[in-house]
Amino acid sequence: MSVRGSSGRMAGQARAASRSAALFAVGVLAAGCAHRAPTQPTTIGELSAQVEVPVQSGALPAPDPAAAMANYRQFLQLQNTDPTLHAEAMRRLADLNLQALELDHMTAAMARADPHGVEAIRLYTALLQAYPHYSHDDEVLYQLARAYDVTGQSALALMTLDRIVAVYPHFPDIGEVQFRRGELLFSAQSYAGAQQAYEAVLALGPKGSAFYPQSLYKRGWSQFKQGQNQQCLTSFAQLLDYTLLGASAGATPQGMHTADAHMPDLQTLGRGERELIDDTLRVMSISLSYLDGPASIDALVAQRGPRPYTWLLYQSLGDLYVSKQRYQDAAAAYRAFVARDPIDEHAPMLSMAAIQAYRRGGFPDLMLQGKLEYVQRYGFAAPFWQGRQHSAYPQVVAELKVNLKDVAEYYHALAQKSHNDADYSSAADWYRAYLASFPGEPDSA
Questions:
Q1: Quick one: average pLDDT of 110-123?
Q2: SS3 labels along 58-79
Q3: What 3-state DSSP class applies to 183?
Q4: Cβ–Cβ under 8 Å, residues 11 and 103
Q5: Which of 55, 186, 187, 343 is deepest in the core (most CB within 10 A)?
Q6: In 3D, which of 326, 389, 384, 392 has the Cα closest to residue 351?
């Protein structure tokens, strides 16, 4: 049941629990042994005659979990103890054994951890049987589920979590309980049940559980595993909204244009976030390839409204097709975004991606057509440059220069073969366009 960042938290909890456990153990032992206390002084004179006990100052010694467990075991062997203290001692001793088990796992000592796991499970189970109305039953059940899971008893862990959901629906950490149910069900390839568990977490809302984004991601995967390609696209799109726009599912206004919202530069994201986004885009692309490709992206955008990351959907689908050597399909995916929004700042990059796909596939005529479209769309007189400085887009300027020259030289070579005046005229027109755009270049002469 480990999640990212839980190891440090568990270690801190273990230290704190060990300290409090040691203090509690001392207290209960004192309560159990109170009948052996020495006779108290009865007069002021006798009191003054007592020897002073020096008090040492400074930091408290580090808690000793093993000593605390020994103290608890000693207390549990006492007869006629308070039932409340006895139950609490059983729970604390089980907690310490579970914490020792988790600590051993964190240090890759599974063989040493097994005895602690067995004892933790035995104590939790005995506590639930001996004290059916114990006030912390829900917490004990949760700890028992963790112990089952850490010791590899997934079926029993799931049964215990199911019991919490059924008996304690208002358990403070019910979101985590449902998420862990989903993880166990997903691992068992029970994808429909896993989807329901993740949806229970999502029903709590973004602020209702720290496992909200993970549940969006895993719900999408559960739907994908069930072949629900259309449904999983919505789940993954909601995750991209949450991750890239900081918005909860469905919170981004419909009809929003890419210029109306902002997303972080992907290069500035942490490794974990970037890997999550890359994997989300990859599985979305696979689903889209099973559907209608770029047309399915168009439908998704029509349903949810444009997003600042819309271009990533087309790019990722095109990249998937390239990896499958489906070069014309790849170019069609890239070009679909350019046709949708030719003045978007990412459109020139996708135009070049289509040209490269044609080149890799061995389609020279289509590659030439792509270059013609590029110089028409991104020449300096085109709408793309309205409100934009050339210096802000050096890559677009460099690709415009190359494509202008390639187109002019193509028509020049064609005219030399055909001796057609129209071909010569076209070559001259493109050379003029090149000179008008790059008059000061070394090769302009």
A1: 70
A2: CCCCCCCHHHHHHHHHHHHCCC
A3: helix
A4: yes
A5: 186
A6: 384
Q: pLDDT at position 10, please?
A: 43
- Which DSSP symbol is given to 228? -
The yes-or-no verdict on residue 261 having pLDDT over 80 is no
Residues 149, 134: Cα–Cα separation, whole Å: 23
Output the six-digit token pair for 113.
């951890």
Single-letter amino acid, residue 282: R
The two structure tokens encoding residue 286: 């696979």
Determine the pLDDT at residue 57: 55
Mapping DSSP onto H, E and C, the string for 328-345 reads HHHHHHHHHHHHHCCCCC
Helix (H) or strand (E) holding 101: helix 83-106
User: Where does the pLDDT of residue 31 fall: very low under 50, low under 70, confident under 90, or very high at 90 and above?
Assistant: very low
Tokens read off for 436: 């008008």
Give the DSSP per-residue string, 125-149.
HHHHHH-TT-TTHHHHHHHHHHHHH
Q: What is the pLDDT of residues 318-339, one digit of tens each?
A: 999 999 999 999 999 999 999 9
The span from the CA of 218 to the CA of 181, in Å, is 12
How many whole angstroms from its chain centre is CA 389? 37
The pLDDT tens digits of the residues spanning 211-233 come to 999 999 999 999 999 999 999 99
